[in-house]
Amino acid sequence: MSMSAHDVDELRWDPFDVVMDVAPYDTWRRLRDEAPVYRNEEYDFWALSRYADVQAAHLDPRTFISGRGTVLELMGGDMASTRMIIFLDPPDHTRLRGLVSRAFTPRRMAALEDRVRQVCASLLDPHVGSPGFDYVQDFGAPLPSTIISHLLGVSDADRDEVRHHIDTVFHIEPGVGMINDVSFGAQLWLREYLTGQLVERRRVPRDDLLTDLTQAELTDADGVIRRLTDDESADFANLLISAGTETVARLLGWASVVLAAHPDQRAELAATPALIPNAVEELLRFEAPSPVQGRWTTQEVQLHGRSIPAESKVLLLTGSAGRDERKYEDPDRFDVHRSFDSHVSFGYGIHFCLGAALARLEGTVALEETLRRFPHWDVDEEGAVRLHTSTVRGYKSVPILT
Ligand code: HEM
To answer: Does the global pTM surpass 0.85?
Structure first.
């Protein structure tokens, strides 16, 4: 039996294929050009890959809901019952978002800058004069987990133990992935710890986010004004830990690899640190740390001549949206000077990343402090280790030679 050209060329995008994940750019381009409403029968999902379509779906949360999950392998069940903000739909989402945004204030973020700088210095200084270090393991991963503990108000005495458990949450078991007993045990430990701390904060308030969570009020569905329960607050703190640690570690991993591949632009950033905030946005566009957001349709959607039925899983390909030539000129070129009005790497609309200001602060300060000490490095390509889970894309380990 001979194969037709069509079979050879079959357009297939598999979110679990770790080989495809290394360089998905051509597949993403073909999806945008040839199948902007892509159907995958094997895993039973649809995928939108053009910037405009991803953005439009984010802006229509009645049709594209989060309550049935946003991660492909966990989609279908009632994820809203986890009460995690990321899985809530309006009006529950609107109420909780209003409350936690008040705890997550710009004032609290701005006050963190000095701490972020100190933590960067304490992680980077020991490597000055050494032949090199692992940019993710020794720097990109510990930085956000230390900052999140600080933000929540973890005391100095507990800090190392808490950080150890946060890092353990991200333990990946070979062949099993992110959902494993080691990670689960660490999540339980953190939950208990956080619940204990919340009880403590109610007794003795402090100037920290945990205290804010115990004091903030929300108006319930029946109009009653109430505070969050300790359970709800612990859930939220837990989500901040998982949403705010892994993504920033991946962003910094990408920074070390992409800047090493563009040494002229790296030199420019070292000479002109004012360019760094824009470089962080360009990095987020160029290599989205969280490249796929899932949604569930509540009604039929007609798009580009195809029909997505109600009750379907739709993946929004954030990584592809950042490379869409319909939105960005010469999108496969990394350019720290690129001027653009928006990207979807922090999501868009009602679920827009609550921690975006913190992620931007961490990204900017981390690169400033890195480039001040290490204006030049090479990546040990052989030693670099990729990380691919259903929610993040990047590196677990990037050994650099300084
Ligand atoms: C480079 C780092 C980061 C990236 C790329 C990122 C990406 C995203 C994306 C794409 C979403 C939208 C998810 C969706 O629409 O389903 C999101 C939501 C969220 N992020 Fe981030 N994030 C980052 C850092 C952080 C940090 C540092 C925190 C907290 C400390 C955080 C907390 C959250 C929360 C709570 C939500 C849910 C918001 C809601 O549902 O209303 N993220 N993030």
So the answer is: yes
